[in-house]
Each structure stands twice: as structure tokens, then as C-alpha cells.
Amino acid sequence: MSKIKVGIIGGAGYTAGELIRILLNHPQAEFAFIQSSSNAGNPVYEVHRDLLGETDLTFVGEPDFSLCDVIFLCMGHGKSKEFVTANDIPSTVKIIDLSHDYRLKAKGNDFVYGLPELNRETIRQSGHIANPGCFATGIQLTMLPLAAAGLITDELHVHAITGSTGAGQAPSSTSHFSWRSGNVSVYKAFQHQHLGEITQSVKQLQPGFDKAINFIPVRGNHTRGIFASTYTEFAGTLDEAISLYENYYAEHPFVFVTKENPDVKQVVNTNKAILHLEKHGSKLMILSVTDNLLKGASGQAVQNMNLQFGLDEKTGLNLKPVSF
Description:
Elements lengths: L3 E6 L4 H11 L4 E7 L8 H4 L22 E4 L5 H8 L7 E4 L14 E2 L2 H10 L2 E3 L3 H8 L2 H5 L7 E7 L14 H4 L4 E2 L8 H11 L7 E7 L6 E8 L4 H11 L6 E4 L14 E8 L2 E8 L7 H11 L16
Parallel strand pairs: 1-2, 1-3, 3-4, 4-6, 5-6, 7-9, 11-12
Antiparallel strand pairs: 7-10, 8-9, 10-13, 12-13
Helix pairs in contact: 1-10, 4-10, 5-8
């Protein structure tokens, strides 16, 4: 097959940088353009400095949709919908949006929620994909097998810590080094924006679900990676729970169930999600580790692109973890 012509809108941020790194080495993709209004005419490697020697591409100010098969929207939340509304994007051009603008189902929204472990077959048939949030990805993976079996009978309790890159490239009072380094803090307790899409997915698999999802998000002092723990009531044994999870994810190549207590460094720089289950009394605890910029964003976006274009979903995503 001919190579997939790719365009990126909003090419200067962290998620765009990860996309560029992946797609430069993707055997079935090539760039049509990388757009950035603030960097038009500048070499890509001047913004993404690790790409010096990897590419001579320059940013463009205005996209030419006739050149591409798919565009990735890597803009701030609220900007994607504005962009799609303001531009006449041909129906033949597929869209993968990395913002939250299209994640929740609403009238007139034809974007499919792009969590392959939930909607893989629908993603294959869709032209428009809403890539999940980083917290939402890791947290949902702890819940999907229970929901699919109709076994969530009580409230879900979630505690998850994320690296500073989850806040995006634009500096803020809680993301600059002198505040973040050596520091930990809670934010948006019980009201994080990803709760909507998490609840939506659980209800998709278990329509009668009506319990609370109690989510405590934490800012970590590391740059990338999410460690999430979920616990809830579970009447079965640990072996039954492990079997349930292994069977659910058996055909999903990036999710692994391990008997060892996982850590973030196992997944940083990869598209993997590692899950670990423990039974404590009547409660089942599920741990999840993911890279917020890859499985939580750009790696999953490429996984979705692969599915849209009929490729093996692992294509171009043989990324190696960084252990030290």
C-alpha cells in the first residue's frame, strides 16, 4: 500500500513532539505537513531539539488538506472544535483529535471514542477519532473487564499520580521546575475533567452502572508516567479476577497483566499498559502504569491511525522503555 500522508495541527507541543518522533520511524507513514502558527518557517528540530539530525522538516503556517490522508489535532482543549468548525476539511481526510473536545457523546458529534481496548472494531470503521485523556486511559483499563462482566457493584475509588508533562508545554505556577521538583499535591479532587469519559465508558459496558467513581488526581514530581490504583468490592477470588482480566486483554497487544507489583519506569517511552491485581479482604485493587504522553496520548493516537488504515495496530510502536 502507498504510505499514509500525515498532517499535524499544533505541532509545537509535547504530544506533537511525541507524534513526530513515532511517525518519523513509522514504516507506512510520511509527513505532508507539520503546522504551527507561532513557528511557521522554523525547522522542527528548533522546537523539538532532540530531533536535530532526525528531520529537516519545517513548520508551516497554513495546512493544505489536499496533501494528507489524516490529520492529528494537537491543540489546546477547546481549540480543536474551533478549528474543525472554521476549516473545510475534506470528508476523505481522517481526523484524530487529542483534546477533550469530542470525547463525550453529544448530538452532532460523530467522533468515536478512541480507546482500542473498548472500541477497536468501531475505530476501524471511523473517520473521526477522539483520543482519550491520559488519566482516563490508565484508569479505564483498571475497570473495563469488571464492567464488561457486569461485576461493578459498589463505588470505585481511584488514586492516580501523573508526571508534569500531563499539564502540557505552556508553563504554569504548578508545572515549573522549582515548584514541581520534590513536591506532590492533589488537584481537582472528585471533579477531574476525565471523570466524564471514564463514566461514559463504564456505562457503555455496564449500562446499569450508577455508583460513584471517587477520583483523587495527584501531581507528581516526575516528568512522565501515570501510576493509578483503583479498588472496589469484589465477591470473587483473586484467581478469578486475574483470569477475568487476562481473558479480556488477551487480544489487546499493549496491555499486560502481571503478578509483580509494577512501576512507572517499566512503561516510560512505550505504548504499554501494565496491570497488577491484589485482593484485600472483600476489595479488589487494580494497579495500572502507563506513559501519559504515549499510551495516554500520542502512542495511542498512532495505534488508532493504524486501526483506521487497516494496519496491525502495533505498527511503528515497537518503542523501548527507558530503565534508568
